[in-house]
Amino acid sequence: MPSKKFIKGFRHELANRAFAFMAVGRMVERLDGDERSLFWKTYLDLEIFNRPRYEAAAAVWGLDAAPGFFTK
Q1: What region, left, alpha or beta, does residue 19 occupy, with left being phi > 0 and alpha being psi -120 to 50 degrees?
Q2: pLDDT tens digits, residue range 10-41?
């Protein structure tokens, strides 16, 4: 079992990932058709790729990967 310090840090990382997914998704929508949208679309693709990995790790350690109140 990971240490309490690791779990605390991983919870922060889960919140960061949830926030990035939401924020970058909105950025992609906002910049649709703009030349800068390629960067944000690629970033969103990375978040989509990583999401199941973070969710699986959270499940192993009994953590909820859903975004919390402050993340939303």
Answers
A1: alpha
A2: 999 999 999 999 999 999 999 988 888 899 99
